[in-house]
């Protein structure tokens, strides 16, 4: 039996959350701790965000192919965002960068991190737009609006 797509999204959110937590322990080992801290926060925020999207995803009005494209784009984008920051902070150039401890040049790791971050940013944008399109006129939201008393609702 195949796992529903919303549970897959939540499962990957927990994995990204775990990566972010583990990155927090490694921040002192990064030669650029600012990027290490950013990778830690991207893992935490991205992980919690994907868990929340996993709860929301079944309510979206999307076709099967758009739903699948949106989910896997979001999953891959969070991994790429985290990985790009880790590559920059741990292996790229920075104030305390080692001279030859890592294979390849420091600029190679900087470029690899930048490519991962750029791809991740565009994929996050695409996945967010897919989710936004799926939020159009949800019956659940219409019921919630009608349940709010007129005095409380803002017009």
Fold and architecture overview:
- It is a single chain.
- This protein has 155 residues and is an all-alpha fold.
- The chain has one domain.
- The chain has five helices and no strands.
- Helix 1 runs antiparallel to helix 2 and helix 2 runs antiparallel to helix 3.
- The model has no long low-confidence stretch (mean pLDDT 83).
Topology:
Elements: H1 5-26, H2 33-56, H3 64-91, H4 106-134, H5 139-147
Order of secondary-structure elements: HHHHH
Structure summary, number of beta strands: 0
Class by alpha and beta content: mainly alpha
Biggest sheet descriptor: none
Q: Looking at the structure, what is the overall shape?
A: elongated
Helix content: over 70%
Low-confidence stretches: none
Mean pLDDT: 83
What is the gist of this entry?
With 155 residues, this protein is mainly α. It has 5 helices and no strands.
Give structural attributes.
single chain; 155 residues; mainly alpha; 0% strand
